[in-house]
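Intended use. Records like the one below are meant for learning the mapping from a protein sequence to its folded structure. Do not use them to infer anything beyond what is encoded.
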Amino acid sequence: MPFTCTLLPSIIFLVRVGRLDECWLLTCLLTLLFTSYDTDPVKRKVSPDFYGYIPDDGIARLLLLACMTLNSALLLLVRAFRAAMLVLANKRYFVAYWAGDMALYLLQKVVRGDFQYLLPIDGSFGLIASLMARVLAKTITDFTGFIR
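Structure written out for the chain above:
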């Protein structure tokens, strides 16, 4: 949440002056990062079921990279604009939206039986650690575009 609060004035400024090239730069870098991670021959050999969604054909790879970049940019901009507009309208609207979004996310994790995080901690401390890890991870991925 603190990262988001420091990012909102920048987003509002970018919207007002019409400079969105930083978003495109971030999404291009993220796309290249995920592409290089997925096309690593060692990772594809070790775990072919997980790696390999990016095809080896040049035209198909270029088309997928363009679609990934466009999709990432649009998703990041939609989240950023929504947060910026809610903060401009009333900061309580943003807090209510963020809390509701987080509550639905956590409820979905509980219903699916996926709430316990990858930490081997049992008991109430494990639940608290899982809650903190889930909230932190969702906040970071929602407002930066980085996938865990």
